[in-house]
Design a protein that fits this description.
Blueprint (H helix, E strand, L loop, with lengths): L1 H23 L1
Length: 25
């Protein structure tokens, strides 16, 4: 389960970065 939580955090972090980059554009 720890791996799943870590994967979710990574995906969430990537999603935040993508949304930030879209706002900058």
């Amino acid at each position: 389960m720890r791996e799943v939580q870590a994967c979710a955090l990574i995906l969430e972090d990537l999603g935040v970065k993508q949304s930030d980059s879209e706002q900058r554009l």
